[in-house]
Amino acid sequence: MASTEAAAKPAAPPAKAQVMPSARTLTWLTMCFMTVSAVASIRNTPSMAVYGLACIFLYLLPAIVFLMPTSLVAAELASGWDGGVYNWVTQGISPKAGFIAIWTQFAMTLTYYPSLLAYVASTLAYVIYPPLASNGVYTAAVIVIIYWVSTMISMRGVGLVARLSSSSMLLGTAIPGAALVLLGVIYLLQGDQSAAPMEASALLPQVAGLAGLVLIVNNFLSYAGMEVNAVHVKSMKDPGREFPRAMFVAMPIVIAIFVLPALAISWVVPSSQLTLTGGVMQAFTAFFDHFHVSWLTPILGIMLVTASLGGMMAWLAGPSKGLLLIGRTEGYLPPFLQKVNEHGIQVNILFAQGIIVTVIALLFALIPDVSSVYWIFSVITTQVYLIMYFLMFVSAMRLRRTQPDHPRGYRAPMLPVLAVVGLASSAAAFLIGFVPSSQFGGDSALSYVLIVGGGLLVIGLLIPFLFLWLRKPAWKNAVPAPEGDEG
């Protein structure tokens, strides 16, 4: 995700200034791969594969009304203002709004990591013992162990994270995704019957009622995170040109990674049998059993886990770093949370985040229905994250009016139109998020609204307002910035 060193940041000491050039090591292609790794994953494709051929429409529509506005708006903002979403919203609205934006960008990870790692646990179960995929205690244990190991790795610096994210995207997303599509094509060419209808009439989804719309609109947020690595633009040689280029190349790659594997899954696994956490491995297992190469199942499982961990590493490196920079330079965080290690990594923020993730993971052990818990966390993640997008789109429009001559390396075409479309899409996703879907195993719509609304209010609004209320002048620059680079 993104964040920033604010425009009002005090001048850095000479020693720090001498170090900065050495940090400019990210090429546009590396940034592209980091972005794809943070956004695209075949783990979410089962939720759209249930619609069969209609998943093409269900991915392309959000790409037009959400992915494109988000990518182009973020590209303009990143090319004109360093530091990411905090500085964008601060310049466009106010510093307090900027803090709310960077907080929500960070806070959504508190529920994102458990849902992501629940998928990892389900995938690993197919490697170890498939029935474990629905075991809550096993899922909770995997979430806790893998999260803390990933946190220890991320504390080695953003350079290591960038290398891991790029390599995992190729090994764990591109290759398995391509393999899934290839297996599906061969499966159909051999004359095997598709599990989903393949007639032209199936291109448009057959959706009944608001509950059916939930999965569709929530799919907009499958594309969330295109701005996540804007916090690292200072590590690029020419961010005004290279960041937009990375965005333009990343967009079609992300769309392809979502659409094609979803189709392949729909060909081999009936929609009534698909599960949110295990759908991808269900498809690989079915294909490998059909082609009598079942021994490949654990290999693909490990590769998929690698992709998810790479994406998680990219998220660990961005939002918490942004929160640290703002917490230090503007005094929004107490000194304890400003502590960094020798690599400049925000160790205490990561530890505090880990404690919360660990507590949330226990819910998987306490609530029998793993898919229901997974879906609840996914929805809360979406609702919290949407607050940031509302602020980002509004800021982009205001900056075009208030700072029209500010140097920008890239100017998005028809930016007001893009921003309005992005706002409308975000509002639709936000409202629909409060409607229980068929994936929710609860008994009452009211309980669903209370859980989602409560999570949104506490994580997305209550906590940042408490920080603003308790803020003290002594918190500003309470802990000096490290003298070294980020590794």
Question: Could you describe the 3D structure shown?
Answer:
The protein is built from 18 helices and no strands. Mean pLDDT is 80; it is low at 1-23 and 483-487. Helix 7 packs across helix 16 (370-402). 55% of the residues are buried. The chain has one domain: Amino acid/polyamine transporter I (Up-down Bundle), CATH 1.20.1740. The chain has helices at residues 14-19, 28-39, 46-49, 55-80, 85-92, 95-107, 109-128, 136-154, 158-189, 209-218, 239-268, 279-290, 297-317, 319-329, 347-366, 370-402, 415-432, 445-470. The longest helix is centred in the C-terminal third of the chain and has 33 residues, at 370-402. It is mainly alpha-helical and 487 residues long.
In a nutshell, what does this entry contain?
This protein is mainly alpha-helical and 487 residues long.
Distance separating the two termini:
19 Å
Give helix and strand order, one letter per element, not per position: HHHHHHHHHHHHHHHHHH
The figure for the number of domains is 1
CATH H-level superfamily: Amino acid/polyamine transporter I
The SS-based structural class is mainly alpha
Main beta sheet strand tally, sense and closure: none
Q: What's the alpha carbon Rg, rounded to whole Å?
A: 22 Å
